[in-house]
Amino acid sequence: MVLPEYATKAIALLNENGFSCYAVGGWVRDGLLQKESHDIDLTTSATPAEMQRVFSSYPVIETGIKHGTLTVLIDGHPLEITTFRTESIYSDGRHPDAISFSRDLSSDLSRRDFTVNAMAYHPKEGVIDPFGGQQDLQHSVLRCVGNAAERFTEDALRILRLLRFASKLGFSVEAETKRAAFECKEQLLLLSKERVAVEFKGILCGKSVKDVLLEYHGILAVIFPFINKMYGFTQHNFHHCFDVYEHTAAVVAAAPDTPVLRLAAFFHDCGKPDCFSLDENGVGHFYAHASRSAEIAKETMLELKLDKKTIERVTMLVKLHDSPIDEDARAIRRKLNKYGEEALLELIALQRADTLGLAPEFHTRLAHFDALVSLTNEVIASGAVFSLRDLAVNGNDLKRRGLRGKEIGLTLKKLLSAVLDERVKNEKAALLEYLDRHP
Fold it and tell me: How many domains does the chain have?
């Protein structure tokens, strides 16, 4: 592992002034996994006041000075440096009541969540690993530092961090750590919705998300109670070889790993149990489940305080996830007009992932979605018109023809519809002539 020069310079400066300093946490973990990481945090025996003296010739930002953290700008790179510290009890289940600065690296590392995150590195000393993090990395295991129940009781967010790392890294969870996570799961209700949202999006976007969703559904159901209805809900339909929740986990894993698409996949069938009916032949149906799922999705995302754009896009995708899209250029142009390029391609990707969550004999439909992507890209590349701003005439042209107010907007929409249906070319003369013939 090789630290960037600016980080090495910071360590050297502190060492020259009599203080110890190490890279710590994620950068060390990722380096040992031979993964590139630019998120470098340093920890030091120097107090904030001592750091300010050492870095007096550099810009220093008091990022979190009461917690011992300063941000130093070295050669244009911001670098967070935190004083070794110990922590008191966490009476609110999230933040320590008090912290104390320390001169001891081991005591600082002992307060961290998992062994793979409780290692430090020095350019001359190498890796400092008092809790067996390297061995756990070699065995792809996540294990709490010390007593797992205590770690999760101190800070319930660590439970979600555990699931995020399991999803991201594909690691298994050590038995006692797993037991404690389930034992402490109700403490997740103490967390702010914003922090839950950040960690959950990280869980969804991991490479092992399917395994995590299935293995830890009981923990996630504390945050998302609708999971309890989905888990084990048999669909009684020949299209499905999974229950509702197993199908959902498969669709999430099959969707592209962007937050919007993974969220849409997670919510797309959450309303199914509320819409179930069984016909006279014993076949299950879920009429209007897309609308019900969209309602639950929107309500849940509002509670999680996600941004407006994400809420609107995910809700739209969930509501439309089972709406058919024809392999026809005219139909694609109309969809592009209605939803836009990005949203339409996301919808196709979601429907493709949904198909991968069906019984294998129905995977032949994947060719349809591949064709839709190709056709959509062709329509976009051709410069085809699918919005009012692309029309060869505008409101001023219509004003010169005597149109006013709402008439202008309605006429432009009529012209766009004609262009989308290929009844007229998108040329100014042709459009105005079309108006003469269709006033």
Answer: 3
Rg (CA), the chain: 28
Alpha-carbon gap, residue 75 to 164, rounded angstroms: 33
CB 314 within 8 A of CB 300: no
Q: What are phi and psi of 186, to 5 degrees?
A: -65, -20
Contacts of 128 (CB under 8 A, 6+ apart): 22, 105, 109, 119, 120, 121, 122
Q: Which of 101, 118, 138 marks a domain boundary?
A: 138
Residue 82: inside a domain: yes
Boundary-marking domain end, from 122, 138, 154: 138
pTM: 0.87
Which 8-state DSSP code applies to residue 144? Answer: B
Question: Residue 61: what are its φ and ψ, rounded to 5°?
Answer: -110, 130
CA distances 369 to 259, 366, 377, Å, are 21, 5, 12
Q: Is the dihedral of CA 349, 352, 356, 358 positive or negative?
A: positive
376-414 pLDDT tens trace:
999 988 877 777 888 888 888 888 888 888 888 888 888
Q: Which of 265, 258, 161 is nearest to 216 (CA)?
A: 161
